[in-house]
Design goal:
With 345 residues, the chain is an alpha/beta fold. The chain has twelve helices and 14 strands.
Length: 345
């Protein structure tokens, strides 16, 4: 019997040489959407390229509007690129979309479950659509409902399910036909911490135990850091940087320094002051927050506080930390992920 959800630990990132076979290969994808009413078109993808190896979890990271969902739609044949080429599970998404659809599972941002159907009926319907016999469909539904700990709720209407239960059901439906590539578009948005952790464990199990290739889009930095063997940061429809989470963080020299001051005017003064302070590099500021990098973390905070005190800048907090994915995003995109998400909202 398959291991229940939540029974695995986080998987270790694969080395770059662990697999030479590509499950997904996208080259120079371009996609523009017309907006109508005399407004200029929206450039969703602007020459995006990426590769995903068989059996790995690949994280596509970026704020809302970066091009993540459009990438998934192209790779899963829901829309066609204006230019470029994509191959999924060995099949071209444009010239052979039916073969791609037979090889993939797709879980979109919003639940696709019909509220007036039971969980069991939802899985059975998906199995029958994929051509399974009645007995095969019943067996597969029982197997998946058990795996995702939905057996007790299987015969309840899905409108009574919690958000976490609905996401489990969505993934169960997406796995009915035993795909080789699974697309998860923002799979944990809106879930509580416990449900998110359970979902993380199941995604890790699918890749580690069943060797399923998973392309995961997310705007949660901790989710990408926790799950992805490799990840790509996407911004304005382009690939900004790609690598394992540890590789990307390791490319940044030193630790991060974050200073929060009373207002934006004080932040401007603080950034100017700290840009001339020995031991600090890459000084930037956004809103009330000043960020920098340092190679001498032990003694930098006292020097920072003393320098700002001399300049008459009131400091609310000052911290030093190891490089994070937010630091990586700041380095490559020129702004922090938090600020980008806040602007989107």
């Amino acid at each position: 019997m398959p291991n229940p959800i939540g029974s695995t630990t986080a998987r270790k990132p694969q080395s770059p040489s662990s697999s030479t076979h590509l499950a997904i290969e996208a080259t120079d994808l371009v996609k523009t959407y017309a907006t109508g009413r005399g407004k200029p078109p929206v450039q969703a993808l602007d020459g995006l390229s990426l590769t995903v190896r068989q059996g790995e979890v690949f994280g596509l990271l970026g704020p809302n509007g970066a091009g993540k969902s459009t990438t998934v739609k192209i790779l899963s044949t829901l829309t066609r690129p204006d230019d470029g080429r994509a191959v999924v599970a060995g099949h071209d998404v444009t010239s052979n979309p039916d073969a791609v659809r037979r090889a993939i599972g797709l879980i979109s941002q919003k639940s696709s479950s019909a509220p007036m159907m039971t969980g069991r009926e939802s899985v059975l319907l998906a199995a029958r659509i994929h051509g399974m016999s009645r007995s095969e469909a019943r067996y597969r539904a029982t197997e998946l409902l058990d795996r995702f700990e939905l057996t007790d709720a299987a015969d309840r209407l899905t409108k009574t399910y919690s958000g976490g239960m609905l996401r489990k059901l969505d993934i169960a439906v997406g796995l009915v036909a035993r795909p080789t590539v699974l697309f998860l578009d923002e799979p944990t948005t809106g879930l509580d911490p416990e449900a998110r952790t359970q979902m993380w464990d199941e995604i890790a199990r699918l890749a580690a135990v069943e060797q399923l290739t998973v392309l995961l889009t997310t705007h949660y930095l901790d989710e990408a850091d926790h799950l992805a063997d490799r990840l790509a940061i996407v911004d304005d429809g382009r690939l900004v940087v790609e690598g394992t989470p540890d590789e990307l963080k390791g490319r940044l020299n030193g630790d991060g320094v974050v200073v929060e001051v009373v207002d934006q005017t004080a932040a401007t003064i603080a950034a100017e002051r700290l840009s001339h302070l020995d031991g600090l590099i890459d000084v930037t500021h956004e809103g009330r927050v000043v960020r920098a990098r340092t190679r001498s973390a032990a003694g930098v905070i006292p020097s920072v506080l003393a320098s700002l005190d001399q300049a008459g800048v009131e400091v609310e907090s000052a911290t030093v930390s190891r490089p994070s994915l937010d630091d990586v995003y700041l380095h490559y995109a020129g702004r922090t992920f938090e600020v980008e998400e806040g602007a989107d909202r």
